Every structure is written in structure tokens, then in C-alpha cells.
Amino acid sequence: MGTGGIAWSILAAVTATGLVVIVRTRWLQSRTLAKCVALSVLLHGVLAVVCAFVGGWTPASWGRNDEGRMSITVALAEEPVDAPAVAEDSSPSHTEPAAAQDARTAPAAATDVPAIPLLPAEGEVAIAPVDHVPLLDAAPAESQVAKPSPDGAVGADAPSYRVPNTYADRVGARRATAAAARGGSEATERAVQSALAWLAAAQAADGRWNAAEHGAGVQRAVRGNHQPGVGAKSDHGVTGLALLAFLGAGNTHRDGPHAAVVERGIRFLVGRQRSDGSLAGDAEFFAALYCHGMATIAVMECQAMTGDDVLRQPLARAVARTVAMQHPHTGGWRYAAGDRGDTSQCGWQVMVLASARNAGMTGFEVAESRARGFLQSVSSGAAGGLAAYRPGERPSMAMTAEALYCRLLLGMPAGQPTATEALAMIAAAPPAASNYNAYTWYYATLASFHAGGPQWERWNLHLQSALLPLQRRESGPLQGSWDPDPVWGGHGGRVYSTALSAMTLEVYYRHLPMHQREPRMAAATPSSP
Predict the structure, then answer these.
(1) How many helices (H) and strands (E) does the chain have?
(2) Distance CA 156, CA 405 (A)
(3) Which residue, 91, 92, 158, 302, has most beta carbons within 10 Å?
(4) Domains and CATH numbers, the chain
(5) What are the E-state strand segments in 48-134?
(6) Residues 350 and 404: beta-carbon distance below 8 Å
(7) Which pLDDT does position 117 carry in this prediction?
(8) Residue 225 φ/ψ, nearest 5 degrees
């Protein structure tokens, strides 16, 4: 073996050893970006030294004149006559058949992807036929809300549709009935309507909610991490949250007093979807997958509530993006494909999959099974009901609530000891105005409501006592909004805190309580590990 071979072998051995050490010690789990930059600089330096020893310190041509004859060999290859033209060059050096030229100059389809087959291959996401979108529950016909398909909106030629039962309580008189029966009040509904009025006024002309204009991207240290400016470009994420608040109160791009607001928002999100299916927009690295999840859930709920076929292909691509970002072994999601995962990110992506089921999509059962495995990896406690941000860390209330809600979505019955243990931790820290945390209260409310029982009634009383007085009630441009909370509010700003708080107070009718549909859930999905 020559000197070059020995040098490259040594470099490969050192690199492999270093990578093993980094992975085993989880060195990259904190300050990932800075450490990756340092590793890149170090690796390029080592490569430069090795190349210098192998090839010499100066190129052979330095200080010399090229003299003598030079030969250039050109290899020509004939292409088959029927080969498709795939080049992107707008000025080809050879003559193409007329059909190929027409194909090249024809406008691309809006989604720029082939149609998704109804019967998927393994790992693919499929869409159920429009006329056979399965309802979430096999309930009597009177619980299904029939809706017309008016002209002049997105996908106006879509057929008449039925709202899946899980969303049916949002519509018409059922909303007030559901709120009264499940712990809501006139005060909670006034707060929701006031929040929607503020959100409607805060929408930009192009349909987005501008995160930075409403206080997002303020640097704060959370869990000891400093992420300057994260959230400032999260327009797609806060737009998704704002739309979810409108959808939760029965508004779609076809119905409701805020139909025009919803239509502008949906058009903005779908119109800026990337070729890989992402709906994250221009979000920063640490916020991108969050934004993708929030935006996808919003568009998915809108499609499920209206049956709008125009939204189905963009959504199939968005769900495929979520599935592709999941770690194939740990089952978690984090910032990039291949990250081992964290519970906070997992919650939004599990909600993407659950919303996709409500919209009639299938083909991600493996992803759901992997998600159950990830939730098991962050669990602790006598019954496995407590949950941490990442495996091996200390459990927290926020992650415990989020993990419980995910388990319920994935089919775990609410009466399991795992749920009981989680609810006990949630009950030990009821909401108070002094500890306002929109994120934690949102997930704890979802978990408590869908698990049901006496704990929900106690939590609901504390929630209303703490959250309602925090809403801005004075006349002016902030009326109806919630100030950014001191935890994650700096990342998401006023739109984030207002949308999450409104959704928290819509819990009474946003979804049919899961503890009332356990037989269907248990039958449709395997139990949690």
C-alpha cells in the first residue's frame, strides 16, 4: 500500500472512531448547529493536510508555462429515440423532437408530482376516494352534518360532503350545546369570538399572519438553550395555528362568518408548499418542522370539514413529508431527518397523522407504530405515564400531557393506568395566572378533556379562572388577544399565544371526546406498548 493509501486509511479510521464516540455520547444533542460547524471546519482542515502530503504542497502547474501539444478526447453517445427529455437547459445544443419541445415548454402542474395511487405500496400515503371518506365514528346519520358546496371558493366544484363526527360539534347550534354540556360557558365563548376578531384583524393581505410583526423571534433562554431569533420567520406555523382557531369554531373556507379569512390563509399555505411537501415556508432550522406540522394540521382539518378535493394532493405530499422526517428506529421527530426525536416535536407530527385519518388517508400505520415506540422510550413512572422531553431526561408536566394526548390519539384507552398516572401529575400543577404557559395549558387541557373523569372538571375550573382574565379586554388594537407568555411566547409572539389560548377554550367542541369513542379507537389501532 502506497503513502496515499496509508494516509487515507488512517483518516478513515480516525473519522469512524470520532463519529462512533459522538453518537454514543450524544455530544451533538445540544448546541447542534455550532458543533456541526466546528466539526466541518476540523474535517476540512484534516483533509487539506492529508491531500498536501499525498499530492505535494504546491500544484504542479504553479510557476510553469504550459507548452507542447494538448489532446482533447470527446466521447459521443447516442440516446435512444424514445428517451424522455429531462434536461433543464433552456438553450439545448441539439435539436429536439417537436413533442419533446412542447413538453418542455408546457406549464408545470401546480403540485408538480404524480397522482397518489389509491392502493399504496408499503410506506406510501394513500387517499380514500372522495365519495367514501370514512367517518371517524360509526354514529347515527343524524350526528353527521351535511353541508352544501357553494360556488366561488377554493375547489368550488367539489361534491357535497359530510363533516366527520369528530368535528361535527363545531358546526351550527351543536357548538353551544356541546360547550354547555362539557364545561364551557358564555364567558368562554365570548373570549373565543373576541380572539377570532383580533386574529382576523391581524391577518396580512396575502393571507399569512406575520410572526415577527406580532412579537415572534424574541430571544429567550428556555431549558438552558439560547436560540436567537427562532420564530421570527415562522409565518407558516402561526398561520396554521390561527387557522386552527377559526376551524375549531366552525369556520372553513366555505362556511362561517370568517370564511374569507380562512380561505386567504389556506391559499397562502398551499400556494407556498415546497417540492418536498413541506409547508414550513421560510422558517428557521429549529422551527421548520413545527411550522410544517401546524400548517399541515390546519389544511387537513379544513379538507376534512369540507371535502374539498383540491386540497387532497397537497396534503398527501405534506403527510409524506412528515413520515419521511421520522427516525426509522427510534420513531421520533426533531429538527432534521435522522434526528432521534423529542416529545414536543412528536406531538405535532402525531396530530398530523391523526388529522390525516380523519380526512380519509391511510398508509402510515408503520409510522404510528414507531411513534408508540418513541413515546415508550421517554416514559417513566410506575405505570409509564410520565414523560420527558428526550429519553433519559427528567419528566415534566408539559411533556407528560403531550405524551398522554398522543397515546390517546394512537389508540390507548383512557382508563389505562398509564393515563391515570399522567393525569395525577397534571392535576398537581393546575393553571394559575402567575404561571401562564400557553403550550403546557393547551396540551394539559387536551389530555384532561379527552381522558375525561373528575380530573377534567377540576382542571377546567382552574383553567377558566386563570386564562380568561389574562385576555386583553380594553378597547384598542390588542383587544381580544393574549400577551405572549413568558415561556415560549417569545418564539411565537402574540398570534401564537392568542391562537393557542383560543383553541384551549374551544376544547369543548373542537373534537368529540376520545373517551367516548374508545371502542372504535381500540379496534382501529393497536394498543400502546
Answers:
(1) 18, 8
(2) 35
(3) 302
(4) 164-524 (1.50.10.20)
(5) 126-127
(6) no
(7) 33
(8) -100, 135
